[in-house]
Amino acid sequence: MAYLSRNARSHHQKSHGVRKVVITLLVFTVLACCVVGVATAAYVSDSLKTLPSWNKNSFAPPQASSIYSADGKLLARVYLQNRTSIEATQMGAYVRHATVAVEDERFYQHGGVDPAGIIRAAVTGTGGGSTLTQQYIRQTILSSEATQDTLARKIREAYLAIQIEKDYSKNDILTMYLNTVYYGEGAYGVQAAAQTYFSKNASDLTLPEAALLAGLPQLPSKLNPFLSKASMAAALVRRNHVLDRMLANKYITKQQHDDAIKTPITLKHGAEPTNGVYAAPYFVQDVKNLIFPPDGSNPYNLSYKQLTTGGLTIRTSLNYKMQTEAEASMSAAIGDSGPEGALVTINPKNGFVQAMVGGRNFAESQVNLANNRVWTPPDPTKGTKGGWSGGRQPGSNFKAFTLTTAIQAGMSPDTMVNGSAGKIPDIGSKGGYWNVSNSEGQSRGLLSIKQATYSSVNGAYARIEMALGSVETSSATDNRNARLGAAQVAATAKKMGVVSLPLDNNAALTLGGEAVTVQDIASGFATLADNGVYHPPVKIVSITDPDGTVRYDYKKDPNYDSKRVLTPSVACAVNQILQGVVNQGTGTPARISGRQIAGKTGTTNDSADLWFTGYTPNFCTSIWRGWRDVDKTVKINGSMGYGGTACGPIWKAYAQQVFATLPNEDFPTAPAPAYNSSKFKFFGGSNSSAPSVVGLDYQDAYKKLLAAGFNVSMIEIVASQPRGMVISQSTSGTTVTITVSLGGGSNAATSTP
What we know:
Blueprint: H1 6-49, E1 65-68, E2 74-78, E3 82-83, H2 93-103, H3 115-124, H4 132-139, H5 151-167, H6 170-180, E4 187-188, H7 190-198, H8 207-215, H9 229-248, H10 254-262, H11 281-291, H12 304-309, E5 313-316, H13 320-334, E6 340-346, E7 353-357, E8 373-376, E9 387-390, H14 399-409, E10 416-418, E11 422-425, E12 433-436, E13 446-448, H15 449-454, H16 458-473, H17 481-496, H18 518-529, E14 533-534, E15 540-544, E16 550-553, E17 563-564, H19 568-584, E18 598-603, E19 609-616, E20 619-626, E21 635-636, E22 639-640, H20 643-659, H21 698-707, E23 711-717, E24 726-732, E25 735-741, E26 749-752
Parallel strand pairs: 1-5, 3-4, 23-25
Antiparallel strand pairs: 1-2, 5-15, 6-7, 6-20, 8-9, 10-13, 11-12, 14-17, 15-16, 18-19, 19-20, 21-22, 23-26, 24-25
Helix pairs in contact: 1-5, 2-8, 2-9, 4-5, 4-6, 8-9, 9-10, 13-20, 14-16, 14-17, 14-19, 16-17, 17-18
């Protein structure tokens, strides 16, 4: 063994001690790294354990649902975020290059996470470092954590960014990002931004415009050029920075860069309408109410989130061309103030609601006068059931349903009936009588049912309703007749389509005494137009998911199955009479040469509600005019209005526009129904004679004739019969003249009216 000097031994011992320390430090370092590595791995593992469940669809941003007319017009967009997703080819190259240049210039080199960018952000202290892919993740699947600046969120974000790069191409990721990112001013996605800031499509953006938009997502609120001069100046600085980055990354030439820098910002704010509604606002409102009815039901099995974020395509029944023509015709008639108007057009062949005008101005009042009903929820504390209320009284429009009921029951339209105004027995009216006056039709005396329809004679229709009830009571004067007849009329109206509001069997039903909606009246008349087949009104035709999957098709919905509710013979007979209303009755203002048109007018008490509903075999439209919030007389050119003169001309002006392209169809014919008018007993007389009162005291005779609905005239003569006895009678129309004995045997006579 070699001998070592003291110094050498000392040096050797010291060296050995240093090695031990170094080795010990290395061991501890390795152990520490292992511990840190294990801890880090555990932290990463824990962070990923809380990762939301996801698939490819999880990365999709909220998409607006779109509501379209039957002829392809966008009516409305329903959204939480104003976004219209487009394809890469619809974006244009400028905005894609500008975004990559300023947000993630190594986008095409990294795999979702950019280490160089992270180091740069850490060294410079400028923040950022997130790739476009990471930003996209943050705004979609991790949107609920977007404002949380935690290591756990960044780990999840990085992990998902790497995963999504495995499933999508760079081109797809950039497209998805540009469809997602927020640009300020309520615009999500580059298409909405292009529309919002420049009123153009993304594909039409110029280089300076594209550079401006690409710079906004950094600080969308502070850089919004609409806000102030300061924000405009900041947006200009940011835009020019984007142009610099585009030049540095060789996306544009020096000349393009310099020209764009010199270009001032020129904005043109897009007109995104209130609530996303572009056209037919009352109709769109009805569509939304169908999807989420006020009564809490869910007939289309949709959630609010699905509607506002699911990118659904909702196809409707509306004909946009007809809608614009309807709005123009109504606007020309009602002007900017005064009484309102409402209109509904239904295609009789399939029930499609093709046009709907719910008032003068949707911005001023959202109550849809064409379908105005209100849901009252049930109140268990009061024991009340929920139900619908609202609507307007239809006046003589409703006589069409009484006429249909009568013909269906076997009452011939040639049957003569008393049309006079007067007191009608009614068990539910105060004093036991219902006072009936004639509004549009002032005809008195006996006239046929079809003549009473042409002239809209209230007195006649009150008696027709009573006659329907008389089949059950076998009496012309029974005070239950009107209510019994009204029940039959209500049943007919309901099966023809008047279903939105309850119809009570009160005596005034035949004259339109129960509230209805314009849509229901149009639906009921459309049943006549299609020869007795009822088609439930259709507004939503289909609902489709973004991938093309049909979620809903009305043809597969049993609630919209068509049903024959009248025989062709009954429908044909009614249609013939209602054509007479337009050709020679109260509906002549709607007459159009060369077209077979049927219809019915309506006017309520004091002319508060004015109506005309007209139809052909392929077109049915109901029009109402009145004050929006009060029952007040409607005056036309200073005079009290009537349905025919107030609404008929609107119907005609509108129909003439529609008929320019709508085929001319005649009503089908059918054999007449089997009539048996003898089973009906008419209050006030019909083809039968007045009741005999000869031999009665004149006071009893007077009461009996009045109760039977006749007017009474009396002649007194000296005769051998007891004083006050009726000795003879004669009838002229609805007036019965009785001859009453004065006693004493003299031939002197007097006349008492």
